[in-house]
Specification:
The structure is a single chain. The chain is mainly alpha-helical and 117 residues long. Helix content is 80%, strand content 5%. The chain contains 5 helices and 2 strands. A two-stranded antiparallel sheet has the order 1-2.
């Protein structure tokens, strides 16, 4: 349970940092939107993301995995439609947000792993 909460917290920080970097192109209007947006993002990527990556496996292999950001961007657009308090301007900004979130998530996770051993 503790590992899940740490992962959720890192994801929330990563999404929030991406929204700060993108300015008015991606916004959270409340803290709760960040919390619920992170939960939805994780659930959608865990369930739908795997299925979509399986179905688009040839494209995934041809782009050496870079199409993963497009899938994650599509998940962010889905969250935009279903979650009040969260806004992404379009697919390009959502894909860029997915890239920034992934980089921030990797960086923060590596910092946590260094400290915990």
């Amino acid at each position: 349970m503790g590992r899940f909460l740490i992962s959720w917290g890192v994801g929330a920080i990563s999404l929030y940092l991406a929204s700060l970097m993108l300015g008015s192109h991606m916004e959270f209007y409340t803290v709760w939107a960040v919390v619920w947006g992170t939960l939805l993002y994780g659930l959608l990527n865990a369930m739908l993301g795997k299925l979509i990556n399986f179905l688009t496996c040839p494209v995934y292999l041809l782009t050496l995995g870079l199409s993963r950001f497009l899938v994650s961007g599509a998940m962010l657009l889905l969250i935009d439609k279903f979650l009040a308090g969260f806004m992404v301007e379009g697919f390009l900004w959502a894909a860029l947000a997915a890239l920034l979130t992934s980089v921030a998530n990797t960086f923060i996770s590596s910092m946590i792993k260094e400290k915990t051993g």
